[in-house]
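Example 3.2
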Amino acid sequence: MIIDKGDKMALVTKTGKTVNVRFEVNPKARRLILRLDERKREAVAVAPSRKKIGEAAAFARDRVDWIAEPLHALPEPVALQDGAQIMLRGEPCEISLEGTGRLPKLEIGPPLILRAPGDSETIGKRVERYLRKSAKSDLSDAVIRYCERLGVEARRVTVKDTRSRWGSCTSDGRLAFSWRLIMAPNEVLEYVAAHECAHLLEMNHSPAFWAHVETCRPNWKAERKWLRQNGRDLHAVHAA
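Structure, written as tokens:
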């Protein structure tokens, strides 16, 4: 079998579980790499060149049991569709197509109901846009407060759909966050905002940096712990 860049193959573990593996070529890679793509629920075998893809396949095959364990431990995906239950600012929220108007509206509960009337085929994208906008608003407010407390200034705040980081800070003061933080409890979102604002003073994770974080969020360790324990649940949500 000839395997090329972009191809996929299905591997079977000793216990009968199936693992899908996607192949990529990255000239910057110094060796064969095997990583997980949690969003697509598959493994990715990275080779430094096309000539090495066959070796990457063998590399993945030898490690299929190791790959399967974290993949099959992922939470079940949750589609943003009519009747779905998600978390919004840490509270249960039901998505509904019923309602009036053209824009999604949040109905205070309990339970919370996010009404997004319109075409059922596009409800996922419309709800995601609402969540992104809400995240941008909450995070921007938090950044303003923590910048004032720390005596710094953020140049810009954006929201993205990142997997490896909940937030980031550039040396010129640009802050970026995952929109998925809007599903976490408010104190967790606040912690991430404070974390990135502290980076405007210390571009590292030194004791001085954590002292700035604690000035803003005295309970930051518990808030960080929540994110580490529940972050995969936030990433399991996707537009239908």
